[in-house]
Design a protein that fits this description.
alpha+beta, seven-stranded antiparallel beta sheet, globular
């Protein structure tokens, strides 16, 4: 039995790591990661490690999926066989080459050819043992009977080496050249020659490490000068051993999307069509509703749709309209909003997006207490361990449930306005649908806020960023019991005797007998009244600051004292809507605080400044604060969060220095005065909303992609509307459109025509862009994806 953990890597860069699962040969991780991809990559890889206490962690095996193949696995669970980890296959980065084939006239007048290889630079080479590598390159001209090799100088401590070295190779000899030379190459053998560039890390006293290679056939050069970026590739024999042991397998569920986002004006028609959905009568004839109908999985449609409608303040009327349609098919009040309809999924997604801070201020302190100082809470007699006391466990569980419940029912003041507006609409729609049931207006709200929001967050705190990792098995069990209790307490009328008798687990029935008190019912009622009210809440200026992001990074000492050494130290960073702080450890008092209003700019820092990757700088009243994140994803997320919260600062800079001020001058522009104005323009601003990160154009592009992928279903739905309009009689047999909701065939047909027309125009725009992109790209060059994300 061993202790395992899994890492997620973009090429060779680790971006996430799971918790360690101890003493198992079949570990279940059960963790979810969602991240934007800030750079180009070739492989998405997953490495399984055996955790070691005294020695280096052992890599057991890996799953590597090429970027081009990710679409084949997206949205589906798959088992992948673990492959052995071979150093010859562990590559990342790219190399910039200029190649030229010259014709030279010799002294006797004959013609020979010369190959010129200019190796300019490399970018994104991997870290070696957590440090920048010492790279060098070998440049070879390889053929059936020759292998001429030359070597660059070693560049120290950099992942982006600047070589700028030129090498010359004689490709063909003049006719007078002596046959005695073993390097004789006939004219026709040019077809078999290739340029090979290998990148290595100089090991000094140990063996050099292979970093990647590229091969370019000489025949593609013709007589033209040619330069391009080439992605480094593994060796041909890399990871291809003749016999591999069965290393096991890894089950993954990957969702990868890459969108080409055009300028905003291209989306005007589709965006307007979607935003007016709540005004369309009936709602089933609207573009937003049709989107959910044609997508195989409603969730694919819900995420971009909710984000777009939120961004343009159109979500509340749309949710009210689809909820009203949902209620038409609900026959009993006690089953209200219990299914996975478009309405319930929209509300679920809305709560996840706008309720992050609400959950943190409400639940994080008590969840931290449960996870960091756990008390035994098992009350199931079958699962009790030897020596456990069920009475003590029940008291512990009651203590936790009371505390979580108390925090929830006191939290209405922090509930986001959008959530309150949606709950208000749902409450009144439910009362209208079941006028004789006085409790339905409360159960309509509690089915979301308790069952689908707080209870889910309690049982999966890592998913809602309340905890950094999935809790251990015992703590997970405790959270599950608390979540069950919160669901029951929050369900209107669940504490009556008739409800208690319906419990499947006898031990839960016994536990809830202690809760049959009027105060719990009244507390829930008051809380539901508060969160479904449209009355204005306390002004945001009086409430506590919004907690935006926190995590461990490295910062360079700012040298505020004469004896202070300017080295890098690990610190805990915290960003709120009011200040940016760092601490020696989590939950300790801050060592240094920068008020948000004092931040002048947040920009990337050139690697050359300190020979460290993933660095950025926070410019404020004093000297710049230089910070190193743990990977490219983390650096991108911190820069975006800091830029977003400081966007409206009045004194933001227009120019900055992309490198550091060291040894009496700025490395970027060589200015010798530290107060010299920056030499590079600051990057463009990002959206100002500090709690909701939404790019409206990107969400519209995603919706366009969904419509485009499901074009055949749009056409089927269009045909269905035509059939219904022509033939008004009863349907005798199920048909292709029996699963579609068509209340008004004429209105639906009209919307469908608008959607298809808009999608066709966007198709043309994308085709023009792709043609322009492909015509400007040279052989070997690679373009950055405009937008990529993975979960």
């Amino acid at each position: 039995m061993r202790d395992f953990f899994c890492t997620i890597n973009l090429d060779q860069e680790e971006v996430f790591r799971t918790q360690v699962v101890e003493k198992s040969l079949s570990p279940y991780f059960g963790e979810e990661f969602y991240f934007e991809i800030p750079r180009t990559f070739q492989w998405l890889s997953f490495y399984i490690y055996d955790k070691s206490v005294l020695q280096k962690d052992l890599r057991i095996g890996k799953v590597s999926i090429k970027k081009e193949d990710l679409c084949n696995y997206t949205g589906k669970e798959n088992w992948f066989m673990l492959q052995p980890v071979d150093s010859n296959s562990e590559v990342q980065g790219k190399v910039h080459l200029e190649l030229k084939l010259n014709e030279l006239i010799t002294d006797n007048g004959s013609v020979c050819q010369q190959l010129v290889v200019h190796i300019k630079e490399c970018h994104g080479l991997p870290l070696i043992n957590g440090q920048n590598c010492d790279p060098y390159a070998t440049v070879s001209l390889v053929g059936p009977s020759r292998n001429d090799q030359k070597k660059t100088k070693v560049k120290k401590k950099t992942s982006n080496p600047q070589f700028n070295e030129t090498f010359y190779f004689e490709v063909t000899r003049s006719s007078s050249y002596t046959k005695k030379s073993q390097f004789q190459v006939e004219e026709e053998d040019i077809e078999k020659l290739e340029v090979r560039v290998d990148l290595w890390n100089n090991g000094n006293l140990v063996q050099d490490i292979f970093l990647g290679e590229i091969k370019v056939p000489v025949k593609v050069l013709r007589n033209d000068s040619f330069q391009a970026w080439y992605l480094l590739q593994p060796r041909e024999n890399g990871n291809k051993s003749s016999k591999t042991d069965d290393l096991g397998s890894l089950r993954l569920n990957i969702c990868y999307t890459e969108d080409c986002v055009l300028p905003s004006e291209y989306y005007t028609s589709l965006r307007n069509l979607l935003l007016k959905s709540s005004d369309v009568q009936p709602i089933s004839a609207s573009a937003a509703y049709i989107l959910s109908e044609v997508c195989r999985d409603k969730y694919d449609a819900v995420l971009p749709l909710v984000r777009l409608l939120l961004h343009h303040h159109k979500l509340v009327p749309f949710v009210a309209a689809v909820a009203e349609l949902d209620l038409k098919d609900t026959q009993e009040a006690n089953t209200i909003f219990r299914g996975n309809s478009l309405a319930t999924r929209c509300v679920d997604e809305m709560m996840k997006i706008v309720g992050k801070h609400y959950l943190k201020v409400t639940l994080k302190p008590v969840i931290d207490e449960i996870c960091e100082s756990p008390k035994p809470c098992e009350i199931d007699p079958i699962k009790l361990r030897e020596g456990d006391n069920v009475e003590i466990n029940m008291e512990n569980l009651r203590y936790y449930v009371d505390k979580v419940f108390r925090e929830i029912v006191r939290s209405s003041i922090s509930c986001p306005t959008v959530m309150c507006d949606v709950f208000y609409s749902l409450r009144h729609l439910a009362a209208k649908r079941f006028p004789n049931d006085p409790h339905v207006q409360y159960s309509a709200v509690s089915s979301f806020v308790f069952l689908r929001f707080f209870a889910v967050a309690v049982v999966s705190p890592h998913t809602f960023h309340l905890r950094p990792h999935h809790p251990d098995a015992q703590t997970s069990r405790t959270l599950t019991l608390i979540s069950k209790a919160i669901q029951t307490l929050g369900s209107w009328g669940s504490l009556t005797k008739s409800k208690l008798s319906s419990f499947k687990e006898t031990f839960m029935c016994e536990f809830f007998k202690t809760f049959q008190e009027e105060k719990f019912t009244e507390s829930v009622k008051k809380f539901l009244d508060d969160v479904s009210s449209t009355e204005s809440k306390e002004p945001s200026g009086v409430s506590e600051p919004v907690h935006l992001k926190e995590g461990e990074m490295y910062k360079r000492a700012q040298g505020r004292t004469r004896i202070g050494k300017k080295n890098f130290k690990k610190r805990w960073f915290c960003l709120t809507s009011r200040e940016f702080t760092y601490h020696k450890q989590q939950d300790k008092e801050p060592i240094f605080t920068i008020p948000i209003k004092n931040i002048l700019a947040v920009e990337k820092l050139d690697e050359s400044s300190f020979n460290k990757k993933n660095m950025f700088q926070v410019l404020h009243g004093e000297k710049p604060l230089y910070i190193q994140a743990n990977n490219c994803v983390e650096a991108s997320e911190w820069i975006e969060a800091l830029c977003r919260v400081t966007r409206c600062n009045q004194k933001r800079l227009s120019f900055y220095h992309p490198s550091a001020f060291l040894n009496g001058n700025w490395l970027c522009c060589k200015a010798t005065v530290e107060s010299t104005e920056g030499c590079a323009r600051c990057t463009a601003d990002v959206p100002a909303d500090t709690q909701i990160e939404i790019d409206g154009d990107r969400e519209t592009e995603r919706i366009y992609s969904l419509f485009s992928i499901n074009r055949s279903k749009l056409q089927k739905l269009e045909e269905a509307c035509g059939s219904i309009a022509v033939y008004q009689g009863p349907r005798k047999e199920p048909d292709d459109y029996s699963n579609f909701t068509i209340e008004d065939s004429v209105a639906t047909f009209h919307t469908l025509q608008q959607i298809i027309d808009t999608v066709e125009k966007l198709n043309e725009s994308h085709e023009k862009y792709q043609k322009k992109r492909s015509s400007s790209a040279k052989y070997g060059s690679e373009e950055n994806p405009i937008v990529g994300k993975v979960s």
